[in-house]
Design brief:
The strands form 4 sheets. Strands 3-2-1-4-7-5-8 form a 7-stranded mixed sheet, with helices on both faces. It is of the alpha/beta class. Strand 12 and strand 13 form a beta hairpin. Helix 1 crosses helix 13. The protein contains 13 helices and 13 strands. The C terminus is likely disordered.
């Protein structure tokens, strides 16, 4: 019998190890995780499609503006003039390939009420400052927009510092403040839809949404897309949710003016992640977070996203979970991090096991190994490729090896 290649021997040994009860449990667990994801995405699709069908029915019923509101009478001037004032605060940093298009979509809103846009940068040296200044000049006769220089942050992250400075500069009559990231691409009716929900239910503490990633074709963009897809299920409730995305948050302006629930102090004094901090405050004070079905925003990913930048993004997401504002928040972040790691590996592990099984089967087929050649001897013990077991192979207690059952009519490769 020819000596078995060490790599092949290791491959066959791994394949056999992946047939133990524990390995089978891990594979079944992976199937359950996949099924749970499939059900979650199916439910998310149902919620989105229900809203799309409602718009289509409205158009068929004569409401050609169903993509803006369900009742066309709400677009009458008498109702538009009574809409509350909204201030949109956009903390900026740098200038990417999609930023200009995103900013244009944000300021060209069809909201009928008073609306102002505040672009907040750290300094005039930021590349975003000159780009947004030119944009404001181009639209100076159509929108109320201005650029604010916030200066360097000393007590919290720069993004939170920019947001708080923007809130300080908002109009005195502003009722709602909407925080948007520079990578959010708005629908013309998004601000109106968010405001309508806030007016309908004053108990809402924060309204949020979620980005629909559009991969650019690079490996990093697809990795980020895959990372966000499971998270998107938590925002597809069409109502109450426990999740919050910092890229789109609408809140009551008075919560900042009066520091309700420690909103300002919680963010200002050591805040690193705006959404994690606010979500923790909402949970601690039993406040309501909602995600309306229309709050899904196209999010084109940069073509320069490589795996290195994706890995850096994951590191930042992990670091976010290290920040907290209370003991309970710390415990929840620990639980979230642990469950995320466990479920992620629980999802990936069955695929790795399957790859080992397939590689072992292909190696036997390509190399033309016989039964004797697939038996590895390590320390006096024999190891056999698991696909042989139960297929014309019996175990001999006398020789401590697996031997062919010559009376069986099962082909050694008949199960492939």
């Amino acid at each position: 019998m020819s000596a078995l290649d060490p790599v092949d021997c290791l491959l066959f040994s791994l394949s056999r190890a992946f047939c133990t009860p524990l390995a089978v449990f891990i594979q079944i667990q992976g199937c359950v995780i996949c099924l749970t994801l499939a059900i979650g995405w199916a439910f998310a699709a149902y919620v989105r499609n229900r809203e799309i069908n409602r718009m289509k029915d409205g158009i068929k019923g004569g409401n050609t503006f169903a993509f803006l509101c369900h009742d066309i009478n709400e677009l009458e001037h008498s109702k538009q003039v009574n809409l509350p004032r909204v201030t949109v605060v956009m903390p900026l940093k740098g200038f990417g390939e999609h930023n200009l298009h995103n900013w244009k979509s944000q300021i060209t809103s069809l909201y009928g009420g008073p609306l102002e846009f505040l672009f907040v940068v750290e300094s005039t040296e930021d590349p975003a400052y000159h780009a947004v200044s030119r944009l404001i000049t181009d639209f100076k006769d159509d929108v109320d927009a201005k650029t604010i220089v916030a200066g360097l942050s000393t007590t919290c992250s720069q993004k939170i510092h920019n947001q708080l400075v923007g809130v300080e500069k908002m109009h005195k009559d502003t009722k709602y403040v909407l925080f948007l990231d520079d990578d959010v691409r708005l629908h013309p009716g998004s601000i109106r839809a968010l405001t309508a929900e806030m007016e309908k239910n004053p108990e809402i503490f924060i309204q949020t949404g979620y980005p629909l990633d559009l991969p650019s074709g690079s490996l990093g963009s697809y990795c980020i897309y895959e990372y966000h897809m499971p998270c998107s299920m938590g925002f597809a409730t069409g109502g109450k949710t426990f999740f919050l995305w910092g890229g789109c948050m609408m809140m009551h302006a008075d919560d900042f003016r009066l520091d309700h629930y420690g909103v300002v102090s919680g963010l200002r004094d050591g805040g690193y992640s705006d959404d994690m901090t606010l979500a923790a405050l909402a949970g601690a004070h039993k406040r309501l977070i909602t995600s309306p079905p229309v709050a899904v925003f196209p999010h084109p990913l940069g073509s320069d996203l490589n795996f290195s930048r994706y890995w850096n993004y994951l590191r930042k997401q992990t670091f976010v979970l290290e920040s907290y504002i209370s003991k309970v928040n710390w415990l929840m972040n620990r639980a979230l991090f642990s469950s995320h790691c466990y479920l992620s590996w629980g999802f990936v592990a069955p695929y790795l096991m399957a790859m080992v099984h397939v590689a072992a089967a292909l190696q036997i087929y390509i190399q033309g190994y016989s039964y004797e050649e697939t038996t590895c001897t390590t320390g006096g013990e024999h190891t056999i490729f698991p696909f042989w077991v139960g297929r014309g192979i019996n175990y001999s207690d006398e020789t401590n090896v697996w031997v062919p059952d010559l009376d069986s009519d099962t082909s050694l490769f008949g199960s492939f």
